[in-house]
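batch_manifest entry 22 of 60
target: DUF2088 domain-containing protein
source organism: Candidatus Fermentithermobacillus carboniphilus
requested by: lab member K.T.
priority: normal
notes from requester: please return tokens only, no post-processing; we will run our own comparison against the previous entry in this batch. if the run fails, retry once and flag.
--- input ---
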Amino acid sequence: MVRRRCGYRSVDLKYGEGSVKAQIRGSSIIACISAGVVEKTPDEDAEILRALSCPIGTPPLTEIARGRRSAAIVVPDITRTLPREKMLRPVLSALNSAGIPDERIKVIFGLGTHRPHTEEERRSLVGSGRSLAVKKGGNE
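--- output ---
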């Protein structure tokens, strides 16, 4: 919601689970764009598997990976909300099915300008029980 007041606009910005109000000079605002509502899929796991087996405009991951000796997966750092383990499990399974063992899969964290992860954070982000080659990424 945007309200005008003395040349400034009060803008509600989504932040976490809530929002914050910002006072912005009206002449600095080019446009206010609202995101559309995206319906949540009823079965996230099935949707992830469908996307891996029937991707848009490319062969399935198992076909791309077949015959390769190793693989690398770039994932967002700890500051991004993402169900990493839920998404990594089927990706790792597809790579394993294509003949690439966990030991030959590197996970690279895209840090951008964020601080480096601790070893414990790196391990926790890829899930438990995997012997992946967790590699430092970004500015680490």
